[in-house]
Specification:
Blueprint: E1 2-4, E2 7-8, H1 21-28, E3 37-38, E4 61-64, H2 79-88, E5 93-98, E6 119-124, H3 128-140, E7 145-150, H4 160-163, E8 170-174, E9 184-185, H5 186-199, E10 202-207, E11 211-214, E12 217-220, H6 226-232
Parallel strand pairs: 1-4, 4-5, 5-6, 6-7, 7-8, 8-10, 9-11
Antiparallel strand pairs: 2-3, 11-12
Length: 240
């Protein structure tokens, strides 16, 4: 998947942020990860080559703002331009994942309506508390494609009451990577899989994480194997 990071830097806002990969990366090179700034890739979606074609090819999904939060306060002045770039590229599907769904409406474009069809919004809910705080808000937001992101999953989460509303199209679940990764219990993944089956919502077990518990046994999974091991579970399915 292609990536577009119009700004960089973030503030930890809930338990899922504890071992943030962006923080690990920045701190390893002596950089302050809490400083939010506009990147040189800010206008990447509309940049063109010498032949006038777009540098960012169409027909693909683009993971948007993966080293920050698209709705972080410091980006309020920049977000209207980012929305404009997204509107200009209907040939690209933009995936935006946020822990700040309560700020979704700040600076929405006037022509947003029920949502741009080329934008998928994922709301992170790493535990039951965050699910019960964020998903009711998320359901009220005008979004065409709503995704529940249970990553890093930190405990058993019951999202079935929310899935039953028919307002969510996809659930992603996964463990935490990094040397300090907290436990991902396979039973939590199986429960989410079952909830999705029962409510006809697509499911993706993205990664095991490093600290994986299955059938009472604890496994340390190398980073390069975390995605492939999750796929081997055979839990992923798509509802069309």
């Amino acid at each position: 998947m292609n990536a577009w990071n119009p700004w960089h830097g973030c503030h930890k806002t809930s338990p899922g942020c504890q071992n943030c990969y962006m923080y690990r990366r920045d701190e390893s090179i002596g950089k302050d990860p809490s400083v939010v700034y506009k990147t040189t890739s800010f206008d990447l979606p509309i940049k063109r080559k010498r032949d006038k074609s777009y540098k960012l090819a169409g027909g693909h999904e683009v993971f948007t703002c993966g080293t920050s939060d698209f709705f972080i306060e410091e980006a309020d002045a920049w977000r209207s331009d980012a929305w404009r770039f997204i509107r200009e590229r209907p040939d690209i599907s933009f995936l935006i994942i946020t822990k700040r769904i309560h700020r979704f409406s700040v600076g929405l474009p006037d022509d947003w309506g029920d949502g741009y069809p080329n934008v998928r919004i994922g709301c992170t809910v790493e535990n039951q508390k965050m699910a019960d705080e964020r998903l009711p808000i998320f359901m009220q937001m005008p979004v065409v494609h709503r995704i529940v992101i249970c990553e890093p999953i930190l405990e058993h989460i019951d999202v079935s009451p929310y899935l039953a509303t028919g307002k969510f199209v996809h659930v992603v679940a996964g463990g935490e990577s990094g040397m300090e990764a907290r436990t991902c219990d396979y039973r939590w993944i199986l429960s989410l899989h079952k909830q999705c089956r029962q409510n006809h919502v697509s499911f993706w077990f993205k990664q095991t994480g490093r600290n994986f518990l299955k059938d009472g046994k604890r496994y340390t999974i190398l980073k390069r194997l975390q995605h492939s091991q999750a796929r081997k579970a055979g839990l992923n399915f798509t509802i069309k």
